[in-house]
């Protein structure tokens, strides 16, 4: 009897094959499934072929067949690479922690992220993979965290992140640069001197500040319980501000804060005394006094 039809079923779709008179084989051009076969059982799409003759007799073969089974397993690979998104630290940010926790996400919408390929490289060091990176499953992939085993030096550091999916597509390397700053800024006041006593209400605060890692530094100056006011810091780190003292003890608080949020505070106490002393009484004893003899002068003064 002659063959009447040859059909195949792939991913739930049935296709009819056409005899190629040149080759004597039944053929069809089929569009592969839109999703990778990695997540299918056995990592392949099972293919079933059924041939039916004119008398209605049919024979079927599928992926479980001992002879042809291996030929009836369709492997489909995606071509879209995973996506890496850095959560923290962000580009240009500062960390006051020398062992900052680095957080990022790796996602893939098809075959899935291969966790064994997730890696992080700090500066020019060796890429870190495996259990040193904590991987928490999220929709479509993993949220990853890594804390450096060795403290990072103050200054700039670069993170490079890598990952691939189960079909071997490598994500575009994602990188970012941030700074570690564990040292507060320097702050030196040249005036006024601490515990200064003056009769002038005008007082000029002068000083310099600097931070090697995270300049520019912001400076605020507060007089007594007033509002802390920002002052302009020159390119050389110098600053100055004129204050008007209140009569009596005055507290001047100067705070320098770097871009990482670390601060240094210097406090000065200045006393304004504008009242002249009062001579309340004078006593000469004895008075009168003999020529060439001594006498005692006693003066009572208040201030």
UniProtKB/TrEMBL annotation:
Coiled coil region boundaries: none
Tree of life domain: Bacteria
All residue ranges annotated as the Bacterial Ig-like domain in the record: 97-182
InterPro entries: Big_13, Ig-like_fold
Protein's UniProt name: Ig-like domain-containing protein
């Amino acid at each position: 009897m002659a063959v009447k039809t040859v059909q195949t079923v792939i991913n739930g779709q049935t296709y009819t094959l056409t005899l190629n008179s040149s080759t004597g084989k039944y053929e069809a051009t089929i569009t592969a499934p839109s999703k990778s076969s990695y997540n299918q059982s056995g990592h392949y799409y099972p293919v079933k072929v059924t041939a039916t003759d004119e008398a209605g007799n049919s024979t079927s073969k599928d992926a479980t067949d001992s002879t042809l089974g291996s030929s009836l397993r369709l492997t489909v690979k995606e071509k879209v690479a995973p996506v890496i998104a850095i959560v923290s630290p962000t580009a240009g940010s500062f960390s006051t922690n020398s062992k900052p926790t680095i957080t990022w996400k790796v996602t893939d919408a098809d075959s899935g992220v291969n966790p064994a390929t997730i890696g992080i490289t700090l500066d020019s060091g060796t890429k870190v993979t495996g259990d040193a990176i904590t991987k928490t499953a999220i929709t479509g992939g993993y949220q990853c965290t890594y804390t450096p085993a060795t403290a990072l030096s103050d200054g700039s550091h670069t993170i490079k992140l890598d990952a691939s999916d189960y079909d071997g597509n490598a994500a575009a390397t994602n990188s970012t640069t941030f700074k570690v700053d564990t040292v507060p800024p320097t702050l030196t006041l040249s005036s006024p001197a601490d515990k200064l006593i003056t009769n002038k209400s005008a007082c000029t605060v002068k000083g310099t500040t600097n931070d090697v890692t995270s300049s520019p530094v912001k400076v605020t100056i507060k007089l007594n319980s007033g509002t802390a006011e920002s002052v302009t810091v020159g390119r050389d780190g110098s600053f100055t501000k004129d204050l008007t003292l209140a009569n009596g003890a005055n507290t001047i608080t100067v705070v320098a804060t770097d871009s990482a949020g670390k601060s240094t505070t210097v406090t000065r106490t200045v006393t304004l005394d504008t009242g002249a002393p009062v001579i309340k009484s004078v006593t000469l004893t004895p008075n009168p006094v003999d020529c060439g003899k001594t006498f005692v002068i006693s003066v009572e003064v208040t201030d």
